[in-house]
Amino acid sequence: MSLRHAILGILSIQPMSGYELKKVIDESVGHFWTADQSQVYRTLAGLVADGLAARRTVVQEERPNLHLHSATGPGLAELDRWLASPLPSQPTREPFLARLFFADRMPPEEITELLDTRRRDVRAQLAALEAIAVPAESAETGQVLRLATLAYGIAHAKAELDWLDDTRRRLERSTP
Amino acid sequence: MSLRHAILGILSIQPMSGYELKKVIDESVGHFWTADQSQVYRTLAGLVADGLAARRTVVQEERPNLHLHSATGPGLAELDRWLASPLPSQPTREPFLARLFFADRMPPEEITELLDTRRRDVRAQLAALEAIAVPAESAETGQVLRLATLAYGIAHAKAELDWLDDTRRRLERSTP
DNA sequence: GTCAAATATATGCATCCGCATATATATGCG
DNA sequence: CGCATATATATGCGGATGCATATATTTGAC
């Protein structure tokens, strides 16, 4: 349940509406966390119910009213508590590996195709990350950290492309 | 919902009980997929209810009876359909990056500690993977693929250790 | 002029999942 | 003798989540 905390984190930087929050999530933490629109609103409602976020209705003309949310004192405390709490350290689920593990039920061409599809996906991810990972203007810690989360994705993507080459070579030498 | 398919995949290789299945999952696909005991039993019950797996009760003396499960014809067909279906290609969630992204709320020492903890975790993961990734005796496709899933984890772990070094250096040069 | 997209929020429904707990028996360790 | 562990299965509870859908208005494109 890191979405609660990711939202608290974003609200700690800047108060905003659910609508705007959804866009910010997609753009800023989208490379390591995703959330449905309804999930954003529900989580936000939960935070307000628990007193971790405050909601202020802003009446707008020519547009629907919006609820401006901000992190409260207890909200910031909870954010800091979470940051300092022990890391979960459980392996992430990899649907792609689940396929690969049983892929020998398919003919060799389709195994190759599975790997090629993955290569295209990873290449696209890599390109997307490199496009937004502009070297920080400032050496501020926050900037360095946020850039580091992008560099994480880039490093993993490059490693995976190498692994794909290697795996393809090993498969070509295998007996079906 | 890849657990259904992972279980079908295992049952396609060898019929077994829920109890044994849980152990096999932990040992063979545990590095990219985990499942609670109750979840294994529930998923198995679902597969049987959908006609994708068959259940045969084996009466045992000196031990509780067991339900031996095997993949049915429709079950194997579903497994193959899944293997050939398009890859989801959504980014995996990374709770660690969620922390790092907002870690500048903490004092520098605690940011360093977060990275050090992660380094220990990744090193431990790497060691565990290398311990079980014994080079295949045979060049059979299945063996090559299963070894490749371990190599995947090893490649990613090594890349992450490099990234951790890099990130630490960049942080030391940052202004708080 | 109409249809789509953007702005803005919310609920219903179903699913996946982890944790805790219940049940029953055999073996082994101290 | 007692307690933990292994074998074996199952349910209850609640949380996190995605998809679909509802509502209402304005702006822009064709």
From TrEMBL, chains A, B:
<feature type="domain" description="Transcription regulator PadR N-terminal">
    <location>
        <begin position="7"/>
        <end position="79"/>
    </location>
</feature>
<dbReference type="InterPro" id="IPR036390">
    <property type="entry name" value="WH_DNA-bd_sf"/>
</dbReference>
<feature type="domain" description="Transcription regulator PadR C-terminal">
    <location>
        <begin position="92"/>
        <end position="172"/>
    </location>
</feature>
<protein>
    <submittedName>
        <fullName>PadR family transcriptional regulator</fullName>
    </submittedName>
</protein>
<dbReference type="Pfam" id="PF10400">
    <property type="entry name" value="Vir_act_alpha_C"/>
</dbReference>
<dbReference type="InterPro" id="IPR018309">
    <property type="entry name" value="Tscrpt_reg_PadR_C"/>
</dbReference>
<dbReference type="InterPro" id="IPR036388">
    <property type="entry name" value="WH-like_DNA-bd_sf"/>
</dbReference>
<dbReference type="Pfam" id="PF03551">
    <property type="entry name" value="PadR"/>
</dbReference>
<dbReference type="InterPro" id="IPR005149">
    <property type="entry name" value="Tscrpt_reg_PadR_N"/>
</dbReference>
